[in-house]
Write a structure and sequence with these properties.
The protein has about 500 residues and is mainly beta. The protein is about 5% helix and about 50% strand. The chain is built from one helix and 48 strands.
C-alpha cells in the first residue's frame, strides 16, 4: 500500500532546484520558489511567484534536506505493480508503480482513480527518466488528489509542450518544463536545475490531518493482548502528543503519539474471526483539524485460542540397535513456548524424562533394542502454564531402527604370482581393513581359509594394511579373507573378497 511521501518544508515550494532555476516567458508559480546550495534564479520577472523566492538561504537549504528525505521515502516504498512504460491511455488505482524498462512515458491521458478515498496515494518510480509528450495528461477521478500523487524520477524529467502533469515530481537530477506545460503539483530537483518556459505551476492544497493504522503483526489469538499502532500526520509531518483511541478489541484503548507521530497500544480480541480496527484522534495540538479524524479500517484475522501442544521432532538418523539416539519435542501453550515442563519420551527400551528449555524444547536420549519400526511419543507430566498441559500426549512418530553393524570392514583384494622369484611364497596379496570410527593402534589379524597370514596395526585413519601376505596354492582357491580385531573389549570381524589379480603376475 502506498503511503504519503513526507516533503516537510519542501511542500510549500512549487519549484525547488539545486544549481539553477531558469525561466522564459510568463511563468506563474503559485507557491514558493527556491534554489540551494549555490544556484541562481533568472527569468523572474517576467515570471511571477505568489510565494517567496529563496536563493541559497537557510530556508532553501532546509527544503532541499526535506526533499532528500521525501525522495528516499518514495524510493524505498515497495512496488505493488509493474506497468508498461507508456502510461497514456491507462487507468490506475492507488499503489506504487514502476516499469520493467525503468522509465515512464506519457503521450496520452493517464487516469488515476482513488475509488472514493481522498487519502489514496499514487507513487510512480523510475530508475531513469519521466518524459511526457504534448498530449500527455493526468486526469484525477474518484476523489483523487494532486497532493497525493508523487513521481520519483531516478535522473531527469521532461514535460512536453502543453502537457498537464498532476502531482509532485521528485527528480534526482533535473526537470525541464517546455512551453506551456501545466503542473498541478511541484517541480523539485535534488541534483541540478529546473528549466521553465511559460508554465503554470500550482502547489496543491496541503493535506489535512491523517491517521493510518499500521498492519498488525500476527498471529492474533483470542484472549491474548495484541500490539497495534497508528501514525498521525499533519500536512505530511508527524503529530506528537496526539491522543488516539483504538477501537475493535474487547475494550477501546487510548494512547498518545510519540515524537514520530506513532501511537502504540494493545488490544485484546474475545472472538475468533475477523476484527476491524480503527484509530480515532480525540485531541491533537496542531494547526490541522485532527480531532475526530478516523483512520481507514484495518481487518485483523483472529484465531481461536489453542490448548497445549506437544510435538515430537523428526529423528535424525541413522538409528541403530543398542546405540543412544537423540530425541526432542516442543511444548507450546497458545503457540508460545512452555519452559520448565516435564516431558517423558516413550518408545525406547526404557522411558526417559527431561525438562523443556526456555524455547519449550525437551531433548533426551532413547535406546532401541530391536531392529524394525519403533513408535515414539512424548507426554507432558507437569507444566506451570495457564494451558491444560499435564497429561497431553504428542502425535506418534515412527522411527526406523537398523541392526547394529560391525565397526570393521574389509576391502576387496586380489592375489598374484610372486614374481620374479616366488620366494618365500608362490602367491601374495595385499589385505586391508578399516575401523569406523577411525581408531589408531588396533591390531588386526588377517585369515585366509581359516589360517592366519599376518597382522597389521591401524593408522590414524583407522586403516590396517597387510602388504604381500603370503598365500599357499590351497589358500588362493578361497574366494574371501577375514579380518579380526578387538575393539573396546569386543571381538569384531569383517569379510572381504579375494580374487585373482589381472594380470595375475
Amino acid at each position: 500500500m502506498a503511503t504519503l511521501v513526507p516533503l516537510g518544508t519542501a511542500g510549500t515550494y512549487g519549484v525547488l532546484a539545486n544549481t539553477a532555476i531558469t525561466n522564459t516567458g510568463l511563468t506563474v508559480v503559485s507557491g514558493d520558489l527556491g534554489v540551494s546550495p549555490a544556484g541562481a534564479v533568472t527569468g523572474f520577472p517576467p515570471g511571477t511567484v505568489t510565494g517567496t523566492i529563496h536563493v541559497n538561504d537557510a530556508a532553501a537549504a532546509t527544503a532541499q534536506a526535506d526533499l532528500l528525505t521525501g525522495y528516499a521515502n518514495a524510493l524505498v516504498q515497495p512496488v505493488t505493480a509493474t506497468v508498461p512504460t507508456e502510461l497514456g491511455g491507462t487507468t490506475l488505482t492507488p499503489g506504487v508503480y514502476n516499469s520493467a524498462s525503468g522509465t515512464f512515458g506519457l503521450n496520452g491521458t493517464l487516469t488515476l482513480d482513488a475509488q472514493g478515498n481522498p487519502n489514496a496515494v499514487f507513487i510512480f518510480k523510475t530508475n531513469t527518466t519521466l518524459i511526457s509528450g504534448a498530449a500527455g495528461n493526468v486526469n484525477l477521478i474518484g476523489l483523487a488528489q494532486s497532493s497525493n500523487v508523487f513521481w520519483q524520477v531516478g535522473s531527469s524529467a521532461t514535460l512536453g509542450a502543453g502537457s498537464t502533469i498532476r502531482g509532485s515530481i521528485l527528480a534526482f537530477t533535473s526537470i525541464t518544463a517546455t512551453t506551456g506545460a501545466i503542473v498541478d503539483g511541484r517541480l523539485l530537483a535534488l541534483g541540478a536545475a529546473v528549466t521553465l518556459d511559460t508554465n503554470a505551476v500550482t502547489v496543491p492544497a496541503l493535506n489535512t490531518c491523517q491517521v493510518v493504522v499500521q498492519p498488525v503483526v500476527g498471529p492474533v489469538v483470542v484472549g491474548q493482548p495484541t500490539s497495534v499502532s497508528a501514525v498521525v500526520t499533519c500536512n505530511g509531518l508527524p503529530v506528537s502528543g496526539a491522543s488516539v483511541t483504538f477501537n475493535g478489541g474487547a475494550v477501546p484503548v487510548a494512547v498518545t503519539t510519540n515524537v514520530a507521530g506513532v501511537a502504540t497500544g494493545s488490544l485484546t480480541f474475545n472472538t475468533a474471526g475477523t476484527a476491524t480496527v480503527t484509530a480515532t484522534v480525540t485531541a491533537a495540538g496542531t494547526a490541522c483539524s485532527c480531532t475526530g479524524v478516523v483512520s481507514p479500517p484495518v481487518t485483523v484475522p483472529v484465531t481461536p485460542q489453542p490448548s497445549c501442544q506437544v510435538v515430537v521432532q523428526p529423528v535424525v538418523g541413522p538409528v541403530v540397535v543398542g546405540q543412544p539416539t537423540s530425541v526432542s519435542a516442543v511444548v507450546t501453550c497458545n503457540g508460545l513456548p512452555v519452559s520448565g515442563a516435564s516431558v517423558t519420551f516413550n518408545g525406547g527400551a526404557v522411558p526417559v524424562a527431561v525438562t523443556t528449555n526456555v524455547a519449550g524444547v525437551a531433548t533426551g536420549s532413547l535406546t532401541f533394542n530391536t531392529a524394525g519400526t519403533a513408535t515414539v511419543t512424548a507426554t507432558v507430566t507437569a507444566a506451570g502454564t495457564a494451558c491444560s498441559c499435564t497429561g497431553v500426549v504428542s502425535p506418534p512418530i515412527t522411527v526406523p531402527v537398523t541392526p547394529q553393524t560391525s565397526p570393521l570392514s574389509a576391502s576387496p583384494a586380489c592375489w598374484r604370482v610372486n614374481l620374479p622369484f616366488p620366494i618365500p611364497h608362490l602367491f601374495v596379496a595385499t589385505l586391508k581393513a578399516t575401523l569406523t570410527p577411525a581408531q589408531a593402534g588396533v591390531t588386526v589379524t588377517f585369515y585366509v581359509s581359516g589360517l592366519p597370514v599376518g597382522t597389521a596395526v591401524t593408522n590414524a585413519s583407522g586403516v590396517a594394511t597387510l602388504n604381500n601376505a603370503g598365500l599357499s596354492i590351497l589358500q588362493i582357491s578361497a574366494s574371501s579373507y577375514t579380518a579380526v580385531a578387538t575393539v573396546g573389549g569386543t571381538t569384531v570381524q569383517a569379510t572381504g573378497s579375494l580374487v585373482p589379480c589381472f594380470p595375475p603376475a
